[in-house]
Amino acid sequence: FINIREVKMRKKKIEPALLNMEEFCAYLSIGETKARELLHDPANGFTVRIGNRLYAHRGNVDKWLLKQLVA
Question: What is the pTM of this model?
């Protein structure tokens, strides 16, 4: 017996809210040097520091990108 709801749940991919350096580079199609430069700027509004690591909040990255397009 196959539960349709269960099948739909398996197909739904969970996207993380925080992007690590590799994911951030791939998301913006930029190199690691530029990604580090962006993440080290606290004024950008998307950097999240957990311990020594820097992450990018996906939703805030999208908002930041829209601002860059308008400016």
Answer: 0.77
